[in-house]
Amino acid sequence: MNRRKFLKTVAISGAVVAVSPALTGSFKAEAKGEGLKKRTLEEAMKDILKGKKPVESEKVKLIAPSIAENGAVVPIKVSVVEPIENVKAIHIFAEKNPDPWTVSAHLTPQNGKPYFATRIRLAKTMNVYAVAELSDGSAIMAKKAVKVTIGGCG
Fold this sequence. Notes:
Layout: H1 3-24, H2 41-48, E1 55-56, E2 60-63, E3 67-68, E4 74-80, E5 87-94, E6 101-106, E7 115-120, E8 126-134, E9 139-148
Parallel strand pairs: 1-9, 3-9
Antiparallel strand pairs: 2-4, 4-7, 5-6, 5-8, 8-9
């Protein structure tokens, strides 16, 4: 292939790429509805727990640092003092994040014990909630205040 033919091919390819978004609409993704909807902690708990109100319990152990140096990676550990057959799921909520629901772990007896560990993002200093959804339909929780020195959401 000679230089002239190569440059002609590159120019035509560039023109096709430049015009194709106009022909096919747009490459930009369009969000349905009003985009990211901010909800309160109560709304998030109501949605995730299907209207159940969690009650504080000593059976849920939430281990999190009192002071998190970097809000982008805050280690969280949750254990529940109940047989694994009684625990359906463990949910973690961060009160002041744009969407307080952070993560859910759905458990089965094959998990061995009701324990979950992860890292979450915290936008600023706030309470973190660990909610255990039990097989009898109830929900129990623990909360802990975590002070964030450098925010992780933005």
